[in-house]
Amino acid sequence: MLFLAAAALSQQPNVQQLDQALGALARPWAEALPALNLVWILGAFPVTLALVLAAAGATGRARPLVVFLLGTGIEVILKHTLATPTPLVVPPPPPWAGWIHALNLTPQALLALLPHRLTVSSSPLAHALRGSFPSGHVFRLTCAVGALAPRRRSLRWGVALAAALAVTATGGHWAWDALGGWLLAELAQAVSPQSSGHPARQR
C-alpha cells in the first residue's frame, strides 16, 4: 500500500532533506498569509468529527464515521511510534493562536496533564509524543470532505492540497507528513461506502 510505503520512508535521510527544502519554500506563505492557520481550526478533531457525524446522520451510514475514527487511531499510533522529527513552527498571530490552542490537544499540552515522572525528557512516552507523520489535520479534513461529498473526488483532492500547503507553510508538518495524511484519507475513502443507497459506479 502507498500509505505504508510512505510511512516506511518517512525517516529516510533523502525524504527528510526534501522535506526541509519544501518547508523552506513554503514558510514565507505563512508569514504573508496568516489565514493559512485556518487549517488548524477546520482540521481539528472536534470540528471534523462534527462534520463526519453530520454526514453519517444525513446518509444513515455509520461506516464513514467508523473509518474516520479508525484512521485517527492509526494516525496517532504511527505519529507517536515513528517519532519523526518535527519542523519549526511559524507562531500564529492572535486571534488564531487562541482558537488553535482551544481546539487542538498538542503533545505538549497532553504531557502537561501527566504526572511529572512521565514527562521528563528521557521518558519513552515523552519521546513517542514528538512524531509528526502523518498529518492528522490533512487526514481529517480530507476524510470529512469525503464523507460529506463522496463522489466529489476533485473537491476532496483540492481540499487535501490546500490543507497540505497550509500545514507545511505554517510549520506544523513536513510535506511528507501531509502526503501521508492524504494517503490515509484516501485509504479510508476506499473502504467507506458511497453516501447514496445505490451501488458505486464503476470508474
| Order of helix and strand elements from N to C terminus | HHHHHHHHHHH
Question: How many domains make up the coordinates?
Answer: 1
The biggest beta sheet reads:
none
Radius of gyration: 17 Å
Question: What is the percent of helical residues?
Answer: 55-70%
Tell me the strand percentage band: under 5%
Task: Find the structural class using helix and strand composition.
Answer: mainly alpha
- The poorly predicted ranges are 195-203
Distance between the termini: 20 Å
How many separate helices? 11
Number of DSSP strands? Answer: 0
Mean pLDDT: 84
Query: What characteristic shape results from the CA principal axes?
Result: globular
